[in-house]
Amino acid sequence: MCSIIGIIGKNLVAPELVDSLRRMEYRGYDSVGLATLSINKISVRKGIGNVSQVNKSLSLAEMEGFVGIGHTRWATHGGVTDYNAHPHSCCTNDIAVVHNGIVENYLPLKDELSKKGHRFKSETDTEVIAHLLEEHYNANKDIKAAIIETVKRIEGSFAFVAMFANGSLACARLDEPLVIGISDNAFYASSDVLGFLKYTDQAMFLDNRDIAILDKHGINIFTFDGDSTARGVTKVAWELADVNKGEFAHYTIKEIFEQRTSIKAATYQEEYKIKAFCDAIASAGNIIVTGSGSSYHTSLIMSMIGSRLLKKRFDPVMASEFKYNNDSIDKDTVLIAISQSGETADVLSATKLAKALGAKILSIVNVPTSSLARTADASLGINCGPEIGVAATKSFTGQVSLAYAILDRMSGGKIGFDREVVSDRITKMLADSTGIERLVNITMPKVNDIYLLGRSIHFPIVLEGALKMKELAYVHAEGIAAGELKHGPLALMDKNAVVFVLNPDDKTYGDTLSSAYEVKARGAKIIGISNVPNEIYDAMIPIPRMENELLYPLVEIVPLQLFSYYLALQHNADQDFPRNLAKSVTVR
Ligand code: F6R
To answer: N or C: which end of the chain has fewer CB within 10 A?
Structure first.
């Protein structure tokens, strides 16, 4: 959930370190720090805040040195304090470390190292890495040996970059991403290609259990066992570097508007790839679809439609529940793993487990260079470009569009997903979003509880809509299968509740309208999302009529995203980087 960057360059590295951290800030953002090496001395500056704030207060970009490391932190162990911010140094300050992941056994290690005389300055798990490296490096002044001995001792997941006072950067990864960038002027070690893509498109993806030692002469790669190895250099698409807000105030609203085209981009697939993907599903006896958060909501939609149209069971399983719920996995199983980042720890651990049980792994991913895309047996990209806003928007609709394209192909066109038509309708809805902004400003100032009701294919969208409201506007919001209302949630309805009903005129219409009457009778305000007006709605958000009811999710989620964004503005919440959240959840 943190981002790490290390640079060895021919020029001063601090400005690039700061710029790289800014580009990766989506990964975590409660504190920031840099360490640079100048005249054989390591200096560290770190503090609470986002990259711009800490850079301003500590002048990070002005630090001296041609070698450096940087970090944005998303706290897991130890509070959000200046001391707990990375980099962390060993006792002599000759080694500084930035880390992403969790050292699960840090308490016994800290205890052991303290008894040997090491002095700890923070409450973090990461600091043990700096002291372990120091302990082993002092034994024989051999960086390779020190790092091998260190990784042997760490339980958990990690990607770290350690800067040594002799000018070397030593990196290692286990279940967390780490990629090396190579330019004429510098070597980079980064959590994400976005960390260096502005400077070079030449990337070397480290495998799990790889160690890389970088110095001004070159890069040496070893396995955790110490065997020399090599990793190929991949040319990464430059368009990934496009992470500007353009004409928009925030990434999130920009990304909501990008859906005009991104739902189309998701469905442009190379024929041989989509064929292999569909063939694998068609020949599987057992199909499981997994993901986390919004990607899990796509799993629900894909499973519902797949089971209905292909007369084959698709079972959705939340990635975080997978380890408790995998008894049916065997060689006849296909696991479809859906993820924007392709780095979500729960998703990667589900795929690892399923693979070990003999399943074939298919993935639907946005980041083509991610661990999930690279380790799946077959992978399709949703091609929506970098999604920087922490709340998934265009990646969600991209996933849903691709799921439609796959299932349409497999069912002989039973969904009838026409990307041009749907994109056109979304474009028109976005062009007329002022009604939603007005609705937020007029009816929402004091709202504390929002409920969303929907049945069948609308159910995953009530979950997704509620998730957007929670994370963007920090408002309690709950998605409820409308038929479940009378089994409990009705007790919550009173004049303070605001209830969205997802109710186009498909076969759920009459039943959902009855649910709306039930909540209206308890005094709740009703906002209808529908293509047909009804007097019961206190306010209505119109959506276009869709030829096939299975297509409604795409036009229902857009107004809910907009509503959440405007509500976030009204609540002064951070529209792009909500508190306590990170874009890439790389810890379990
Ligand atoms: C919601 C959101 C998260 C992610 C979840 C999975 O807006 O962004 O719930 O959907 O953390 O992330 P990926 O799709 O990267 O695996």
So the answer is: C
